[in-house]
Amino acid sequence: MAINVVVHGVMGKMGQQVLETVTNTLGMEPVGAADITATQGTIALPDGLGDIPISGSLDEVLEGADVVVDFTSAEGAASVLRAAAPRGVNVVIGSTGITEAIYQEAESLANEHEIGAIIAPNFAMGAVLMIHLAKQASRFFDYADLTEMHHEAKIDSPSGTALAIANAALEGKPGGFIAPQSEKELIVGARGATHEGISVHSARMPGRVAHHELVFGALGQTFTIRHDSVNRESFMPGVVLAINEVVNRKGLTIGLDKIMAYDSHCALSEYRILFLDLAQ
Asked: What residue stretches are annotated with the Dihydrodipicolinate reductase N-terminal domain (predicted)?
């Protein structure tokens, strides 16, 4: 039986990519779409073989849905949780800027209504592996610089993924890092922000999707971990993985890493095997 999916934020670039992926994935069926800019009507499917209802209100397109996928904003994600959970619809969220309050509300709603909710700062499997490697490597180094680069329309700085990478490094090195201070700062902020000793730099311009680079330093050496998403297709295997998993997993799950190690649907088995090997 196919998993019926509603795409929230369907008019955005990620929403369009999710709709195309769901349309072309065996075992999934797009049944509705919602976007704050939409009016009541229908939207053509990317394969040209039909259309689905679209609305500015998610409530109006939830009938028959198993999963709602959201790539909008923190406020949009919260509204999805409040609309979907009471209707028994599972939720996959990739929106940026999710706050602790939203995580807590998501956990409460998922438990109360016995649905699955998966929230991930990044759905690219390589980025998830980068977070894991940052935690494993950090204890061997005293210095760390983290640079993240995104398209000019990204609303938050640093990215949620960059924060996850930095926090993973700090988890592996609880004492934190040394952040050298310039004797003369000719331009204020030239060294970027500092997060417990990790220097963090955010770059924004057209032509980029998502790029993260973490450089550790020690006497006479550096160690670099980098991940690049060169297009939005890079996130889709992770989205498919989450949709397949969320219908079988009750409660709140934070991070794609929690399901990569236990997935039976993932076509990219080499990522799963590598992750399991690293976790041992």
From this structure: 3-123
Q: In what order do the strands lie in the sheet with 41-44?
A: 41-44, 51-55, 28-34, 3-8, 67-70, 90-93, 116-119, 251-254
- Catalytic residue from among 150, 173, 195, 212: 150
From 8, 132, 154, 212, active-site residue: 154
Where in the sequence is the domain holding 59, given as residue range(s)?
A: 3-119+232-279
| 19-44-84-258 Cα dihedral, nearest 10 degrees | -10
Strand-pair category, 143-150 with 210-218: antiparallel
Per the structure, the count of domains in the chain is: 2
Query: Helices H, strands E: what count in the chain?
Result: 8, 13
- Answer whether residue 93 shows pLDDT above 90: yes
Q: What is the mean pLDDT of residues 61-72?
A: 97
Residue 260 sits in the same domain as residue 174: no
Whether 173 sits among the annotated catalytic residues: the reply is no
Looking at the structure, do residues 196 and 105 belong to the same domain, yes or no?
A: no
**What are the pLDDT digits (tens) for 14-38?**
999 999 999 999 999 999 999 999 9
CATH number for position 272: 3.40.50.720
184: annotated active-site residue: no
pLDDT tens, residue by residue, 135-164: 999 999 999 999 999 999 888 899 989 999
- Residue 200's CATH number: 3.30.360.10
pTM score, two decimals? Answer: 0.81
